[in-house]
Design goal:
The structure is a homodimer of 219-residue chains. Chain A is an all-alpha fold and 219 residues long. Chain A folds into 2 domains: 22-72, Homeodomain-like (Arc Repressor Mutant, subunit A), CATH 1.10.10; 79-200, Tetracycline Repressor, domain 2 (Orthogonal Bundle), CATH 1.10.357.10. Helix content of chain A is 61%, strand content 0%. Chain A has 10 helices and no strands. Chain A has helices at residues 22-37, 44-51, 55-62, 65-72, 79-88, 94-106, 109-124, 131-147, 153-173, 184-200. In chain A, helix 5 (79-88) packs antiparallel against helix 6 and helix 8 (131-147) packs across helix 9 (153-173). The longest helix of chain A has 21 residues, at 153-173. Residues 1-18 and 207-219 of chain A have low confidence and may be disordered. At the A-B interface, helix 6, helix 7, helix 8, helix 9 and helix 10 of A face helix 6, helix 7, helix 8, helix 9 and helix 10 of B. The structure holds a DNA duplex (18 and 18 nucleotides).
DNA sequence: GTCTATAGACGGATAGAC
DNA sequence: GTCTATCCGTCTATAGAC
């Protein structure tokens, strides 16, 4: 939203005589570093070097390192608007629609870098100050939960999140092959049923009373 | 297995007199910090303060910060021995057995802290130097893969990993409630069928050729 | 607008006294 | 074996020259 693009992508080498999109260059470099190394391991100096400018310029444009981080987090999608649409048509097929939304967002480079920056940085630290907790997670969790009918909404929602966050880790963060390169349709075919089951499958058993395995698991 | 155990667990113990378990104190504090804050955010000084000793002592016992980290990673289980056992009895019910093994390891405090340290620190950095990649992941991935019959072993294995790593993130790293407190049996009832499906369900479709959704997903 | 110079803080690591 | 004192490096951030 700020100045994510407008620059011809990539990091142009050489010196820009007048005053081109220096701010955009810095922001792009910052996103790249935050996404790849997290907040702590990212240095203003490295960002500046990567953008081909002086470290002081970074402060000049963005203020503190925290401000730069926040600027780099501008995400071009709003989960609070998109997620409810998934459930508008009912619970039937919602697993697949949710997964498709999830994939379309993460496959978009403009969205992936800020998201990676957020995830990578948040996973590095513990506790309640986590941005991931208060930010995106709430923006995604709440819409899903409010769309679920049963009193088991919390469990179902978080099971869905567990599978999706697992995809984030393996496919986008660790880039495990061949899963990272698996075509979208294949992934949908494999994983959508899982999400759908978490969303609307009957409870395996009254929770808290079973002392042996639930019936859902064979053997 | 340097000196991971031998000490009577908890960090409150130890004789004070001549040569108490100072080394153990330091190691426990280090594990705690690495598990909670990752490698970068952990400082020798903080570890020393937490253990109630001088920073120089840390270096005296463990050398560099890297050495301390490696010492803190001693994990009291060996996946290369345990995972194959899961598949010895055949693929039937392997999903549940694998999940139970996974849970029993992560619910053990002696194992959870080093594992968290490893995961948290590895997720903070990108690229091939990741310890998670070369270490535990390989130790777990390989045994699973070698136990699978089909030529789709890679995909199946990584889908399994995606769900399990999602549990790591939501249950043990972010500690999302109520999932983090969900009884083990409930979790097995919910998630084991997912793993089992990834392990032995027929292929949703020949991969790479489908241009619309696979049959596994409704809608 | 862009860069030089530097202040100020923090953390890893070492030498050596007790 | 344990602690004091200190060196050295890196980083954020600012002030000010061109």
């Amino acid at each position: 939203m700020t100045a994510a693009d407008g620059a011809p992508a990539g990091r142009g080498r050489g010196r820009r005589p007048g005053g081109p999109d220096t701010r955009g260059q810095i922001l792009a470099a910052a996103r790249h570093s935050f996404a790849g190394k997290g907040f702590g391991a990212t240095t203003i100096r490295a960002v500046a070097a990567d953008a081909g400018v002086d470290p002081a310029l970074v402060h000049h444009y963005f203020g503190s390192k925290d401000d730069l981080f926040l600027a780099a987090l501008e995400i071009p999608v709003d989960p609070r608007r998109l997620v409810p649409q998934v459930f508008e048509a009912g619970l039937d097929g919602a697993g697949e629609r949710l997964l498709r939304l999830f994939l379309s967002v993460w496959e978009d480079p403009h969205a992936r870098l800020p998201l990676l920056a957020l995830v990578r940085s948040s996973l590095g630290r513990e506790g309640d100050e986590s941005l991931l907790r208060q930010g995106i997670l709430r923006m995604i969790l709440e819409p899903i939960r409010s769309a679920l009918p049963t009193d088991e909404a919390d469990h179902r929602m978080q099971l869905v999140i567990s599978q999706m966050s697992g995809l984030v880790v393996t496919r986008y963060l660790l880039v495990l092959e061949p899963l990272a390169s698996m075509p979208r349709e294949d992934l949908v075919a494999w994983v959508a049923p899982t999400l759908q089951r978490y969303l609307d499958a009957p409870l395996p058993r009254e929770r808290g009373v079973a002392s042996s395995a639930g019936p859902g698991a064979s053997g």
